[in-house]
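Sharing a chain and its predicted structure for anyone who wants a worked example. Both blocks are below, sequence first, tokens second.
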Amino acid sequence: METKRLCSRTGRWWRQMHPIVSAHSYLLRPTSAIPDHGKYGFFERSGSSELQNSSPFLGILSDHQKLNFILEACKFYSDFKTAIQSHAKIIKFGYGTYPSLIASLVSAYAHCDCLDLAHQLLDEMPYWGFDLITANLMIASLMKVGELDLAKRVFRKMPSRDVVTWNSMIGGCVRNDRFEEALRLFQKMLNSNIEPDGFTFASVITVCARLGSSHHAEFVHGLMIEKKIQLNFILSSALIDMYSKCGRIKAAKEIFNSVHHDDISVWNSMINGLAIHGLASDAIGVFSQMEMECISPDSITFIGILTACSHCGLVEQGRWYFDLMRRHYSIQPQLEHYGTMVDLLGRAGLVEEAYAVIKAMPMEPDIVIWRVLLSSCRNFKKLELGEVAVAKISHLNSGDYILLSNMYCSLNKWDSSERVREMMKRGGVRKNRGKSWIELGGIIYQFKAGDRSHPETETIYKILEGLIRRTKLEGFMPTTDLVLMDVSDEEKEENLNSHSEKLALAYVILKTSPGTEIRVTKNLRTCDDCHCWMKMLSRLLSRVIIVRDRIRFHRFEGGLCSCRDYW
């Protein structure tokens, strides 16, 4: 309430405090006389907040850097009072035309729940006299601090835009995980008179990779060829990564074989692409080719090759490459390398050895490594080690609780599983809902577990029920072991039947002709039941089904999966 009252009075307060500033632009205009604030050291004099004197390194920063630092802290602590005081100093010392500083101020107000002030600052833009370059810097600064909606407000107010403007907006959407919005902006850019450049395509390629959108990937690549965009190592590696993550590993290989290999990032993209498709022997082959061409691997190369070994259970090869990295190439293992080794050993059932690797690490293991160990403990029913891993995770998220509860369920410890669920309820932790995406005709459709929001819900469920009946007649048995509830098998089965990837697959079957390849992307690791079901379905329908889950790709064909049931 206090903050809201302050917000409502701020406009009047500024006019009273700074009568020399014009009525049209009273928020950011500097005073006519600017003192030598480097000489006077205004932060040392102000004493307006302990925050301003709490960090010893403030003394080595310039005044506008100090303001940026303090405004970032205001965001973290939602410190409206200090934000207002910093705003006064921005005016007093003539920093009203520093885009990065104004972006931080706008962001601080937004974090203090004072959106009216943030919007008011942006509404002043026409009176600032900002040119195109400064407005572009403003957008880039707002994107950098995560204020995408405020950056869009600046974008809309600009009387003219150039390629940098569009690139800042598209790239900002990518950094803030607004991928579909980035695609819409790209389409608007194409409809304007501004030609996209290499930087534009680098961002849009990333969007296609993250969405797994094969249709958009082909369109974007075709457009690059049409516009004769010169391929450098950044775009080459991005294209390989894009096709790999869209499930088009053959196309990724074709790109790799057609571009220059003089930069390590191109090799890394290919090795990592093969790794996520479970093609370990191919990844090892590329690594050997790289060595023959005298290209030195880096730390990222070894993450890719170790991941490939992990996905295929190549324990001895993984150990060999881990040793090669240190012994031959003098690359010291980082957290990510130790994480892949823990994953490699844990997947192979060598859970105690994985724990020994963690204990022998020269640095403190992070939360990701403990979660990898917890996942292995769940898979191999190592209850004691699983509880050790949970104890090491300071802030449990829904996935951690689910793994622990799954472990108890697999051992029929229903009381312990119920306690975990009660802990989730008390902590306000909700299970991450499974989501799956499919692409039809260039449009991306999303389905959630148990989803009934789609206009064709009844038909989708009818198709799904028919598919389930058909697989059961062929001997399919639902895997109900790890459903998180002590209820009847019928209720567990009903829960499994409405998983998001099954709904997505049913919709593709409804909308496509027999024999069409099916591609599904999922936000979580696919479960045992869906995995077994899709193997059988690929044989019954004579269709290729490609599922990209959180960890890797699964290519189901003729009743088999490319992961060989090792994932």
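Comments welcome. Confidence is low (pLDDT under 50) at residues 1-54.
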